[in-house]
Description:
By secondary structure, this protein is an alpha/beta fold. About 50% of the residues lie in helices and about 10% in strands. The chain contains 18 helices and ten strands. The strands form two sheets. An eight-stranded mixed β-sheet has the order 3-2-1-4-5-6-7-8. Helix 8 (about 195-205) packs antiparallel against helix 14 (about 320-345). The longest helix is centred in the C-terminal third of the chain and has 25 residues, at about 320-345. It starts with 6 loop residues before the first strand and ends with a helix. The structure holds nicotinamide-adenine-dinucleotide. Nicotinamide-adenine-dinucleotide binds next to helix 1 and helix 4. Nicotinamide-adenine-dinucleotide binds near residues 12, 36 and 90.
Amino acid sequence: MDSSIKVAVIGAGTMGSGIAQVAAQAGHNVVLFDTRLEAVDKALAGLRMTLDKLVEKGKLTAGQADRIHGRITPASDLMDLAGSGLVIEAIIEDLGIKQRLFSELEGIVATDAILATNTSSLSVTAIAGGLKHPERMVGLHFFNPAPLLPLVEVVPGLATDEALAPRMMALMQAWGKTPVVCKDTPGFIVNRVARPFYGEAIRIYEEGIADMPTIDAAMKSAGFKMGPFELMDLIGNDINFTVTKTVWEAFFYDQRYKPSFTQQRQVESGRLGRKSGRGYYSYDANGAVIAPSSRTSAGSLAEDPAGTRGKTAGSLRASGDPAEVSQMIVERILAMLINEAADAVFWQVASATDIDLAMTKGVNYPKGLLAWAGEKGAGHWLGVLERLQAIYGEDRYRPSPQLRRMARM
Ligand SMILES: NC(=O)c1ccc[n+]([C@@H]2O[C@H](COP(=O)([O-])OP(=O)(O)OC[C@H]3O[C@@H](n4cnc5c(N)ncnc54)[C@H](O)[C@@H]3O)[C@@H](O)[C@H]2O)c1
């Protein structure tokens, strides 16, 4: 598929505006449509500012910036998308609304036009379910911010033509992206494998083993750019909670993905994170952290001077000594992440190489989890999980058959 193909992007919000920029930078003419025309205007004004900054930094010439901007045409009617060869949908995450949009589109675009969805958590197969020609539908899951993060998960649905995923892989490479192909399963790769980064951190906090800044500091000492609570505040606690709930429900309520009351209460109280000025931390008008939000830090080690709760989880031998607590936090969260990555391999969601690529290129993990597992040996991580499972007696900590297999190798 060459750059003469016209690309349509539907939804001019956070993701659609970024995807339109990526396609225009790759040389495509782009039509940008949104039910709210002001969203398209805002996206084009935002793109102008972004491109001007790139010119200031010397990354683009003024002429290149003008040409990129000039390739994006606003559309006020779905009919304006008629000549597009590829349509990428980035509208509200609602199955019924997406299905209706694609049904309508089928009557507008040519029969050989490719239909792609940027859904994060819905099934591509379900979105294509109402189409007359579901074989031309595929998932193209970009990450936020789309112009900066290289990863794109290419997700064929059950009815997708077999030739389509390789075509999209090639196109995404031509757009300068790092595509990985993955099965149409809940959360695809990243939103599935990353769940314990948040879920296990909250669990450690809820058990009173450590407070949020301690957990964040521990994970940063392991090489993560942000701690789990800092990152949840950045993503938005409402969005993170919705993804957690959606993945848990989509896995038929598997205990491993169970959401937490801590997360739910944050959302209920409107503490959505940076965007509302308060989440797990409080922020001043400039976005600087003032302090952990009051109450959310209840249950810290400070209220458990003997460190007995730390000891219980000890299991992983935490003594209350800060260095040991930090190590225990990292081991517990990493063990859960590695187990999740191994399980995704076991269920053939994607190859081990692509899973490691996805976590480093989509969410900036310092290392691929499966490569990381190899440093101490899979047997080490299996041991951590077996101890957790023995202590808690919960299915949540069941080791993946793939981790056992890796430990035997
Ligand atoms: N924000 C992220 O980090 C992220 C990352 C990857 C994927 N996604 C997915 O991308 C999609 C869009 O997310 P977003 O964060 O950009 O949302 P957003 O709210 O920023 O933008 C959505 C836009 O779609 C428009 N819209 C809603 N219904 C429409 C319709 N029927 N027709 C045309 N336009 C319509 C809205 O007016 C809005 O401008 C969702 O499916 C989301 O799950 C989001």
